[in-house]
Amino acid sequence: MKFLVFFLGLLVRPQAVSLARRFDSEKVFRVTPQNETQVNFLKELASAVQLDFWHPDSVHHIVAGTDVDFQVSSYLANHVQMKLEQNELQYEILFHNLQEEIEKQFKGKSYFLKKHSYLKYNDWDKIVAWTERIARNNPKMVSRIEIGKTYEGRPMYLLKVGKETGRKRVIFIECGTHAREWISPAFCQWFVKQATSTYGKDKEMTKLLDSMNFYVLPVFNIDGYVWTWTENRMWRKNRSNNSNSDCIGTDLNRNFKVAWGTESSSDDPCDEIYCGSSAESEQETKEIANFIRDHLAVIRGYISFHSYSQMLMFPYGYTYKMAPNHVELVNLIMGSSPGFSKMYKLNPASGASLDWAYDEGIKHAYVFELRDHGRYGFMLPESKIRPTCKETMLAVKYIASHILASAP
Ligand SMILES: *[C@@H]1O[C@H](CO)[C@@H](O)[C@H](O)[C@H]1NC(C)=O
Ligand SMILES: *[C@@H]1O[C@H](CO)[C@@H](O)[C@H](O)[C@H]1NC(C)=O
Ligand SMILES: *[C@@H]1O[C@H](CO)[C@@H](O)[C@H](O)[C@H]1NC(C)=O
Ligand SMILES: [Zn+2]
Questions:
Q1: Residue 110's pLDDT band (boundaries 50, 70, 90)?
Q2: Residue 329 belongs to what H/E stretch?
Q3: Domain enclosing residue 152, as ranges
Q4: For strand 68-72 and strand 27-32, is the pairing parallel, antiparallel, or unpaired?
Q5: What is d(CA 330, CA 343) in angstroms, rounded to the nearest whole number?
Q6: How many domains does the chain have?
Q7: Which atom of ligand 2 is nearest to the CA of 242?
Q8: What is the pLDDT of residue 147?
Q9: Is 163's pLDDT higher than 70?
Q10: Where is the catalytic site (predicted)?
Q11: 64 CA to middle of ligand 1, Å?
Q12: 13: pLDDT confidence band, cut at 50, 70 and 90?
């Protein structure tokens, strides 16, 4: 009896959210440089003081006339604001106190006790249990495969979704590459749920699942994702140790073997876009790349989900040259994206999974940047999960149907 009481006590003990890394009075600025002079000023500022770029994801991508969002420590915020004013840059402050936003999102107390929900952000333990459950409940439609382990030893689960008959065409769907982009894993979960629950009811989905398989990786950067739930909500990279540096982590989306380490990536382990010590230096990258190489004969599409900015992008990022099927990619995007106001070639960057997949021969490769336009950015409220996932689902079905029709 004593034992039982003790055990229950453990179960219901409220797990207060107190992430080790706090963001008291840290600010997020939105700046819109008007011309090259102002762009250069921002670049100089970024080399003089530490700015964490939310969007675009690095200083290399700053362009006159478009918004730049970055986070600044409380210690530097006044200095940065003064510099912006002195140089007559247009700016607004999106968040005055990031810590408050983070606490709002976790809503304190019982967050970790709540059940898995498609309308909430789920921590990694809940996602693992969900992968197991959804496979068990849909044995003819979903199976779970472990494709390897992360740096910290967590199993990397992939869900194979589709009617199990013979060799099928495959679309590979990757979520959760950058840890703090929580809406991305939320979409992968939504996708699997929608696929299984609308099979036999929705004509388009039924046809897709009868004729092809989706390989869904709900969280690519699991170690980083866990870190955003336990230590630092704003973490982006993976959690590997780097030799010769105290800084942790590599940007997995700069670590693929495609023009590695050239365009818009960094060889400084302290940077958010650090490309790793070599292409595929990261265990997670290697596991995925190996899995995809092993399945190239069937994979026809590769779709990667990030946030934020509501854009749909396609190769190339590492070169300005056009992808051979550029026109097809553009047309498809034009038809597919009511919720995505703009579409672009990938931002200049090397070592991105998308370009890599494309050059491996997967001629349909897309990156979604999900909601929003920056009002909340990475702190997108849970109330936006449903509309985000619904509009994205439409676009993904459209793309998948096109791939089915055009890629034998
Ligand atoms: C750049 O824009 C700022 C603000 O509009 C303006 O004051 C400045 O003269 C411009 N510089 C150039 C070189 O056009
Ligand atoms: C994370 O990055 C480090 C540093 O490049 C790498 O050594 C490690 O294997 C990566 N971890 C994973 C899980 O890929
Ligand atoms: C990474 O480095 C830290 C500090 O040196 C060490 O405590 C930790 O065990 C290392 N982690 C791994 C997985 O090697
Ligand atoms: Zn991202």
A1: low
A2: helix 326-336
A3: 114-228+278-406
A4: antiparallel
A5: 8
A6: 2
A7: 4
A8: 94
A9: yes
A10: 369 (proton donor/acceptor)
A11: 11
A12: very low
